[in-house]
Write a structure and sequence with these properties.
Strand content of chain A: 25-35%
Subunit structure (chains A, B): Homodimer.
CATH topology of the largest domain in chain A: Aminopeptidase
Shape of chain A: globular
CATH superfamily of the largest domain in chain A: Zn peptidases
Largest interface: A-B, 48 and 48 residues
CATH class of the largest domain in chain A: Alpha Beta
Distance between the termini of chain A: 39 Å
Keywords (chains A, B): Amino-acid biosynthesis, Cobalt, Diaminopimelate biosynthesis, Hydrolase, Lysine biosynthesis, Metal-binding, Zinc
Catalytic activity (chains A, B): N-succinyl-(2S,6S)-2,6-diaminopimelate + H2O = (2S,6S)-2,6-diaminopimelate + succinate
Helix content of chain A: 25-40%
Pfam family, one (chains A, B): M20_dimer
CATH architecture of the largest domain in chain A: 3-Layer(aba) Sandwich
Largest sheet of chain A: 8 strands, mixed
Number of helices of chain A: 10
Number of strands of chain A: 19
GO molecular function (chains A, B): acetylornithine deacetylase activity; metal ion binding; succinyl-diaminopimelate desuccinylase activity
Oligomer: homodimer
Chain lengths: 379, 379
Amino acid sequence: MSLKEYTAEQFKKFGPAELDIHQDVAQLTADLLDIYSVSGEEKRLADAVENALTNLENLEITRDGDSIIARTDFGKDKRVVLAGHLDTVPLPAVEGSEGTVPSVWKEEAGERVLFGRGATDMKGGVAVQLALAAHLTDSAYDITYVFYDHEEVSSELSGLGRLMRNHAEKLTDADFAVLLEPTDGTIEGGCNGTMRFWIHTQGLRAHSGRAWKGKNAIHQLADILTRLSNYEPQTYDVEGLAFREGLSAVEISGGVAGNVIPDEASVHINYRFAPNKTLDEAIAHVEEVFAGYELDFVDQSSAARPGLDAPMSRSLIESVGQEPKPKYGWTDVARFSEIGISAVNFGPGDALLAHSDNEHVKASDIQRTYEQLKNWLTA
Amino acid sequence: MSLKEYTAEQFKKFGPAELDIHQDVAQLTADLLDIYSVSGEEKRLADAVENALTNLENLEITRDGDSIIARTDFGKDKRVVLAGHLDTVPLPAVEGSEGTVPSVWKEEAGERVLFGRGATDMKGGVAVQLALAAHLTDSAYDITYVFYDHEEVSSELSGLGRLMRNHAEKLTDADFAVLLEPTDGTIEGGCNGTMRFWIHTQGLRAHSGRAWKGKNAIHQLADILTRLSNYEPQTYDVEGLAFREGLSAVEISGGVAGNVIPDEASVHINYRFAPNKTLDEAIAHVEEVFAGYELDFVDQSSAARPGLDAPMSRSLIESVGQEPKPKYGWTDVARFSEIGISAVNFGPGDALLAHSDNEHVKASDIQRTYEQLKNWLTA
């Protein structure tokens, strides 16, 4: 098929205004790719999703900004959340044109492969949610479908966070959540937490020709960098999954001029911590590692336990039939974990392709994920 | 006296076009301050100096750009250079106006004090040179007066360096040089050398959520900063003067983004070394301190030995009657030292005030320096 090229402005008006959510789930994914939904501009896609869900029977729909909650009322004892975000990162540049590529099907090694922004992260997952909503008229569990905006940007803008603040009662009654972020065919449990902080050193400015009159703030970083360099990140087993930690300087700065002893220097440190720790425990740990220094925190996000011990989790793992893995990157399973709902990541596509200009997903991966979730839900 | 305020443009045309170099040397300094001569714009002052010297008898004058060499021909065995730069750093900002202050006399503790850009660095010294040229019709030594441009800027622009390249024969026949940079009443011998270099570390970029896939270039700075932090700068006795060294980080940088293991980091280091070392020996020393790293040199300037052992130096010290001191900052005595001429710093004003918005010099300091040099030269 030929490459379709559009300017971003054309693309914003391109694609189906109405979604056929009963069609093949892979083709549904392509239709979702054809609706522009970079963070902050999810409205057209949210409208299409809301319309499609409203046309179904028996779903109670709540719209909040460009986020949607759609709840079944099958009268079951247990309830599961199926969640995914509608937004994507900005479009990849297309070489030799100012255009963008909504969706392109290619044939690779006998497989149909869908290329385009959102193919991996995570319109395949959203298509699976919509197809399940379309086809499941009954299920072993009641289902709360959640579609949300602003996942790919600053945490405080998160549509899921907003839903949890504004409509907690429609979310907290769930027993389990599946976040359809790409996990390449298996279940990825929990996620590492992450925090960032600065350590600043203070010195005394002086001319470098009379260095003894000053106190060098950069030299004082030696101790901090030595602690970092000597630190041995641990790997923790949590519910059978190995979560590997990391403690890394991500930025360093200091200096006034080539002939001045600097009076200020700073190092910015990122701690990725396993879900065997609460946020407070993780803070206590870095405060111990850097005892004697003040930590100036920039952000702090909890880890999420894998949730693999939960009975619904065990049945999902069995249904998928693959060894679960840990999720290293932070995902919204941590938000579900924070409100007391066990959650796992399970969705089509390879997370390592997310945000790349080469984002793609196999049709068969989307279809298989759909089948696996459908089998599990109707078992 | 009232504060005179001018815009820089007015100031550039202000002040005497002709210098009276026979008047009181302190008032001559004020007249020099009233002629704008920020580096690169020394022409008006150089013209005035050249005219004043041309009106004297028995001086052989060479003009090169805005630098001037004026040589006596007293027929003496020995020859001394008296050298000073004509340029100043940019003007201080005057609060509440866009004006500048050419020269202002104030009364402080019964002393007449001259304020203004160049008061310390170094129009008092230039005034002393001019007054000596005006008044000395004979001397114990022949004298080579040197006035030069572009001292306050990048080393390769130096007017003195240019004179040494273009008119070496008019300089190298001297036995001794006095650089009239401010030394606050005593002789400052030699100067420390200075060099600057970068050390870069290389790592491997990775997502900080998978830190073990990368190699952190900032963590690799730990060893370099530890060497710096543990380094104990030495003080060396050279010809009876104590030269204190310094090895200082002056800048540090590294980092890509808050979630990326950085693959590059750098630290910029300044070594101030005593004149017991040649430039090559100083380079060998830092290469030993940072063995295993490549040093990326930005600049390298030799130290200058104090030159206090030279007979003319000894007689000058005796005449001044103050204990000589080492000069920590780099000055053009190093250029004289490089062409084989012993040189010392001796001029009116406190070097610590140089370049400050509060630059000033006492009339009596300028007058005393003039008398001391005159007595020495005519002894």
